[in-house]
Specification:
alpha/beta, Nucleotidyltransferase, domain 5, globular
């Protein structure tokens, strides 16, 4: 076998933001470079915000390829959250700029893409490339919600990132939905009727 055999390119894919009541769902795809390992990769939910941010910098610096994409609130409301998530994942993989040999997706569903693809339950915990994608998706989405907080300060998006916390639900009841709320989600739909 030739010592210069080409590396097999594995893209890890994960999303952030399926459960919130507001904002886009964000997906990331990452192809790690085995010659430039990144220490500390783990499921983004198991890391502190500071650690996620530091690792996101390392991932962007050392990965062979990475891309982040999203499906917006209108797409979530028209397609449903599952199909919007698959769309965001497909967009992220297609934006890599490098064709992967295989795509590994966190969870039990795969997007419809033109590459060999497998779903891996708990992949964000067990597969480094998926962990890296989890970190990029989470940090990008959190930053987007901080930006939305500046536009819609009444809702507290910077604190809860759009998740249905008691504070968010109280703000929704007090002010009604804003333009970035997911109207197809029951708590928002109920408040939409009230307004």
């Amino acid at each position: 076998m030739n010592a210069r055999t080409r590396l097999v390119l594995i893209a890890g894919v994960d999303e952030a933001g399926r459960g919130p009541l507001a904002g886009p769902v964000v997906a990331a795809a990452v192809i790690l470079d085995p010659r430039r390992p990144i220490a500390g990769l783990a499921d983004s939910k198991a890391l502190s915000a500071a650690k996620r941010e530091a690792l996101a910098v390392e991932i962007r610096r050392h990965a062979r390829a990475h891309a982040v994409a999203q499906a917006d609130v209108a797409e979530i409301d028209s397609l449903n959250i599952l199909h919007a998530t698959m769309l965001a994942m497909r967009r992220a993989v297609e934006a890599l700029g490098v064709e992967p040999d295989e795509v590994l997706v966190d969870g039990n569903r795969c997007p419809d893409i033109a590459f060999r693809v497998r779903a891996i339950v708990k992949g964000d915990r067990d597969v480094a490339a998926i962990s890296a994608a989890s970190i990029l998706a989470k940090t990008v989405r959190d930053a987007l919600l901080v930006e939305l907080d500046a536009v819609y300060p009444a809702y507290g998006f910077a604190q809860h990132k759009g998740y249905p916390t008691p504070e968010h639900l109280a703000a929704l009841a007090r002010h009604g939905p804003c333009a970035v709320h997911r109207r197809s989600f029951a708590p928002v739909a109920q408040q939409s009727l009230a307004w």
